[in-house]
């Protein structure tokens, strides 16, 4: 979500967790903790809380509240296995399962472990967070729309009003990836994508 150690994932990924750690693309693990969770929207925010973590520069991708167009190309980066995996597809419906207006349907391969992966458009804007797949339909998946991330951050700031660190968190709304080819985009993004590990 940002370079300071705040990450967004799905609530269902961390809901039963007693301990949380995150792993970066280099295989380094960091201790983390859940600072926000919402079962209704399936959004959670995790904070890396490890002395070995070094903050990264601001994110190259951005977050958008606007609704994406049908057939818009999208891609994801996630951890269905121990290494980061790229997937691509398109937006197939502006609503999610059973017409859920807080999510959208995407046509993309999604495996166990892809939950919490960002869904980005061609300009490098996060349009959602992948959170489910339809078991009886190949390539049909769903993503929580990114406006829920904005809402989650606002809720977190209200609940933890005295926490000065939270006041500095701002979702980037201007992507520096526009116009780049996909391999260049993914290379700039991959350092910001973490595998969430729970037990």
From TrEMBL:
The keyword Protease applies. GO terms for molecular function: peptidase activity. The lineage of its organism: Bacteria, Pseudomonadati, Bacteroidota, Chitinophagia, Chitinophagales. This is Serine protease. Pfam families: Trypsin_2 (PF13365). Gene3D superfamilies: Trypsin-like serine proteases. InterPro entries: Peptidase_S1_PA, Peptidase_S1_PA_chymotrypsin, Peptidase_S1C. Keywords: Hydrolase, Protease. The keyword Hydrolase applies. One of its GO terms (biological process) is proteolysis.
């Amino acid at each position: 979500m940002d370079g300071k150690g705040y990450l967004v994932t799905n609530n269902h990924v961390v809901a039963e967790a007693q301990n949380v750690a995150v792993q970066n693309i280099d295989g380094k693990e960091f201790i983390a903790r859940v600072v926000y969770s919402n079962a209704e929207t399936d959004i959670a925010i995790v904070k890396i809380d490890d002395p070995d973590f070094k903050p990264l520069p601001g994110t190259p991708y951005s977050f958008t509240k606007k609704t994406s167009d049908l057939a818009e190309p999208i891609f994801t980066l996630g951890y269905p296995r121990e290494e980061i995996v790229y997937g691509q597809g398109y937006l197939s419906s502006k609503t999610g399962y059973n017409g859920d207006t807080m999510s959208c349907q995407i046509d993309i391969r999604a495996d166990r472990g892809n939950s919490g992966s960002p869904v980005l458009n061609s300009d490098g804007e996060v349009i959602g967070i992948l959170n489910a797949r339809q078991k009886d339909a190949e390539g049909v998946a769903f993503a929580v729309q990114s406006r829920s991330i904005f809402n989650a951050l606002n809720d977190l700031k209200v609940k933890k009003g005295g926490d000065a660190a939270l006041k500095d968190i701002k979702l980037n709304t201007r992507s520096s990836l526009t116009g780049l080819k996909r391999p260049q985009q993914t290379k700039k993004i991959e350092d910001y994508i973490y595998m969430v590990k729970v037990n």
